[in-house]
Amino acid sequence: MKDKKMSSNTIQSLDSIAPMVKSEEKKETDPVKVEYEEGKKFFENQNYGQAAVALHNALVGFEEKKDEPGIANASNQLGHVCLERKEYESALNHYQRAFDICDNSNDRMSVLSVMDNMASANKALENYSVAIKLYLEMLDLFQDNRDPQGTVETLEKMASIYIVLGQNPKAADAYRTISSIHKNFKHNNMATQFLEKAEALES
Fold it and tell me: Fewer beta carbons within 10 angstroms: which end of the chain, N or C?
């Protein structure tokens, strides 16, 4: 995944599935990819209606060409649009399609990104058990990858759900785990902050 988070909504790009030609190297001439890039620009400019139209057209074009990476990218971006428009069920449908392609191609980083967005959509729908299940699966993958940052971020998201559900002991456990991870990396201030969060929930 080349692009990091573009906004506070944990929206990421899957362009690593199908690397796009850099503009400085060569101007894109494929009309389907041009439409896809235009859709992304509309999205970045918060023109979600225009983004949806352009990305849908790009998706149809990728489908006609049987371009699986293109289908995954367009589906993922359409999921982002639906998420911003609070069309959570539609977002999940698009993300599921992207997930299936990424999973079949063993693109673990893209799988993690899509799962994170699926969890966000389920959280918005108050499908908390589904969101927690997704986060637990993500934790396994992050631990396999030895990715402490991904582990910490996921544990924080789980803690926020546990707090909403009134499951403070579980949230405290998550914060204690985060604290211990920071302590292992000698991030003493962060370790203390999360330990205090855990203790506050237990008091």
Answer: C
Judged on CB neighbours under 10 Å (0-12, 13-18, 19+), 139 is: middle
- Give the number of other CB atoms < 10 A from CB of residue 185: 12
Question: Which pLDDT does position 27 carry in this prediction?
Answer: 72
Domains, the chain, in order of start with CATH, read: 1-125 (1.25.40.10), 131-203 (1.25.40)
Question: 143: closest CA among 181, 172, 107, 106?
Answer: 181
* CA torsion angle 160 4 83 139 (round to 10): -40
Single-letter amino acid code for the residue at 37: E
CB atoms within 10 A of CB 147: 17
Alpha-carbon distance 187 to 47, whole Å? 40
Cα-atom radius of gyration of the chain, to the nearest Å? 19
Q: Which two tokens stand for residue 184?
A: 């292992």
pLDDT digits 0-9 by tens, 71-108: 999 999 999 999 999 999 999 999 999 999 999 999 99
Cα-based distances in Å from 85 to 88, 111, 140: 8, 23, 31
Reported residue count of the chain is 203
